Amino acid sequence: MDSIVEDAIDEAEHSEDGPAQNGAGTVDASETHTQTTGKMSDDQLEDILQDLQTDITVVGCGGAGGNTVNRMAEEGIHGAKLVAANTDVQHLVNIEADTKILIGQQKTQGRGAGSLPQVGEEAAIESQDEIQDSIQGSDMVFVTAGLGGGTGTGSAPVVAKAARE
What we know:
The protein is an alpha/beta fold. Helix 3 links the parallel strand 1 and strand 2 (about 80-85). The protein folds into 2 domains: about 1-40, no CATH class; about 50-165, Rossmann fold, CATH 3.40.50.1440. It contains 8 helices and 4 strands; from the N terminus they run ααβαβαβαααβα. The termini are far apart. It holds the Pfam family Tubulin.
């Protein structure tokens, strides 16, 4: 057994292609691997961090969706753009969000959808450009709605379709 070990050591010491060894006959680990890390500036690290960042948008449709977005803002949730879309201007005024969209202004004049999903859908279609602008550049879009009234029930599928496109 001693001769096999000694033979291997001798062969490694005399091999031109082998890793460098120090005087004790052991391999210097720093020379066996290609260096993959090194000193980086803060700017370089920030660039890497920026590349890793995912742009998330949460769109709250209608009253319940707006309440969800408002609650997220109140809790100080960071890292997502918060958008509230509603046909009811009174409700929208009281919502805290990064972007507020009064959808269907021509259709509803800001008075709500009257619990009619078709009105909510038509309002969202009327405001498709504003909806698309609010989610532009997002990597992920979460759509939230209560589905018990008109605006959220009707507009959420329109917002989801815009996000998919």
